[in-house]
């Protein structure tokens, strides 16, 4: 397998200075990892700094209420993450004395925390020797190490095996950075890659199909946003941040005045997901 020394050395010179890389606070790591799901770093950075200034601790977030978290989530999209993050904070207060737990099973039991986020907290906050497989890491694993598409279990096993003892934080950050800036989905910059001499795909001459395509954790094409239910949900939540919305105005708010059935279905999903409550003929953010 590829020697870790070159990649670790490269990372010491090449990691971007991002605010969540300056901390080992488990709450701040959980916040950043939740925000970074399906959202670009450039959008997350200013929102992260605002969020942790307002909610610097688990308890501060839990005590504030879901509405305050949803309001501060503006601009990040995928608003259900805000509800889940608040619920996770409440669970940490109720079950773990206001601390984010440091065990995989306990992390996975928190609302909205899946296998990736749980392992990211273990590696980046507690520096435990676990591999973290996001879309960038999944691409590097498939191309550089396996030379073929990897299933989810195989990718995780490989990621765990590769972590140099005691270097989980830097190793996982290095793989993520490599995938984000060099081993990109399109036009990978192989000539600048510290692993080019041992990368299975590069050594083979980068044959098609790209082994990253269809590999575990590697994102595919996202469904169209314009005209989607996601767009209608986003418009509704944006309106709710400004104040309660009468049920009679939902169609106009979502942009579907001629489709009342769809309006009611999407509004119900927003309520069911905990993003809103219905009372007295109006929808409002939860208390």
Give a quick set of tags describing it.
287 residues, mainly alpha, Endonuclease III, domain 1, 3-stranded antiparallel beta sheet, 3 strands
In short:
The chain has 287 residues and is an all-alpha fold.
Structural class: mainly alpha
> How many domains make up the 3D coordinates?
3
Q: What is the 3D form?
A: globular
Q: What kind of sheet is the major sheet?
A: 3 strands, antiparallel
CATH hierarchy: architecture of the largest domain: Orthogonal Bundle
Q: Termini distance?
A: 53 Å
Order of helices and strands: HHHHHHHHHHHHHEHHEE
Give the percentage of residues in beta strands.
under 5%
Output the CATH class name of the largest domain: Mainly Alpha
Q: Going by CATH, what is the homologous superfamily of the largest domain?
A: Hypothetical protein, domain 2
Radius of gyration: 21 Å
**Helical element count?**
15
Give the helix proportion (percent range).
40-55%
Strand order of the largest sheet: 1-3-2
Number of strands: 3
| Averaged pLDDT | 94
Protein described:
With 287 residues, this protein is mostly helical. The protein has three domains: 25-124, Hypothetical protein, domain 2 (Endonuclease III, domain 1); 135-203, Endonuclease Iii, domain 2 (Orthogonal Bundle); 229-284. Helices cover 54% and strands 3% of the residues. A hairpin with a 2-residue loop joins strand 2 and strand 3 (282-284). Helix 1 (4-14) crosses helix 11, helix 9 packs across helix 11 (168-181) and helix 13 (229-242) crosses helix 15. The protein is globular. It starts with a helix and ends with a strand. The mean pLDDT is 94.
């Amino acid at each position: 397998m590829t020697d870790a020394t070159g990649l670790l050395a490269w990372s010491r010179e090449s990691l971007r200075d991002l605010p969540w890389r300056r901390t080992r606070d488990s709450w701040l790591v959980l916040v950043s990892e939740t925000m970074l799901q399906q959202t670009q770093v450039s959008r997350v950075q200013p929102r992260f700094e605002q969020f942790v200034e307002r909610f610097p601790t688990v308890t501060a977030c839990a005590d504030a209420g879901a509405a305050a978290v949803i309001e501060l989530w503006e601009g990040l999209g995928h608003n259900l993450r805000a509800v889940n993050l608040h619920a996770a904070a409440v669970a940490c207060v109720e079950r773990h004395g206001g601390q984010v737990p440091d065990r995989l099973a306990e992390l996975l039991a928190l609302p909205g925390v899946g296998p990736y986020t749980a392992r990211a907290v273990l590696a980046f906050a507690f520096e435990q020797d676990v591999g973290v497989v996001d879309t960038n890491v999944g691409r590097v694993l498939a191309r550089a190490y396996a030379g073929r598409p990897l299933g989810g279990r195989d990718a995780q096993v490989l990621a765990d095996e590769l972590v140099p003892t005691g270097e989980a934080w830097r190793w996982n950050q290095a793989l993520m950075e490599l995938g984000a800036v060099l081993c990109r989905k399109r036009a990978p910059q192989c000539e600048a890659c510290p692993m080019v001499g041992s990368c299975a795909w590069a050594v083979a001459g980068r044959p098609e199909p790209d082994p990253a395509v269809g590999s575990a954790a590697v994102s595919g094409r996202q469904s169209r946003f314009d005209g989607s239910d996601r767009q209608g949900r986003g418009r509704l939540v944006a309106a709710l941040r400004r104040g309660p919305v009468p049920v009679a105005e939902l169609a106009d708010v979502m942009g579907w005045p001629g489709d009342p059935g769809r309006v009611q279905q999407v509004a119900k999903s927003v309520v069911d997901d905990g993003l809103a409550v219905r009372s007295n003929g109006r929808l409002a953010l939860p208390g």
